[in-house]
Please model this.
Amino acid sequence: MGNTVTRIILVNIAVFVVINLVYVFDYNAHGGVAADSFYQTFRSFFILPSDPMTFLKRFWTIVTHMFTHKGFWHIAWNMLMLFWFGRILGDFIGDKKVLPLYLMAGLVGGMVFILTDLILPTGTGGQAVALGASGAVVGIMVAAATLSPDYTMSLILLGPVKIKWIALVAVFFYILGTAGGGNEGGNWAHLGGAAFGYLYITQLRRGQDLTGWLQRLIYRDEVTSTRRAHRQPTQQPSKPKKSPLSLIHKQEMPKEQAGKMDSQAKLDNILDKIKENGYDNLSQEEKDYLHLMSKS
Model:
């Protein structure tokens, strides 16, 4: 039930519950969790190793690690970020693009984590592991900020803040985190996800969807059903009912109010088209208008 953001959050919570129940069971059964415990073995099938040989044996962890959390605040913060920015992004580019972007940003973040851990002098040389949705969530956040930089959110103690400043401050601290703090590999993964989120929106504006192949893979059943429906003869569409607001004569109200109604109606129409067909199916004029309205 719910949109894609809700479903991603529910999957993360389910994995969190299972892993922590295994931890509790193992802890109470053996009087503490040792390094070679069942819990550690079980969790290793979900988290991403930086060692190339271990990764080849557990290649699926490039996906499962972005749904795996241990600490409460770790998952709580990631899911709040996903809820805030994922809903913004889904409203602009369409709900079906959220999951493919989440997966690709997390995948790129995971690969950056492995490469930096192996190549950089500050890395462990393949002894580190990664878990958490942070890389994927940061990709969603940066994508939303790139698409609509002047969209405003109300933050506790700070008040209204444009999301471009939230994203820039976050990326700045991730950069600082690569130079110490005990989570250098995680911060490199965050930056990898951020880079993909930015690249995705810039390419989408040029008409290229970097996650198009993944959308077709995930929603292949719906695509097949749509194609079958298009082959069938369709009935003549009935004339749409006019909204009660459209019956009001524009000359009966001030020009400024009539202009606002026209602008809102045009914006609503564009947002409806985005939800049905996605951002990349808009005309250039509609994209320019949407960009203009995001700054107003």
Notes: Residues 4-30 form the longest helix (27 residues). Residues 4-218 form a domain with the Rhomboid-like fold fold (CATH 1.20.1540.10). The chain has two domains: 4-218, 241-295.
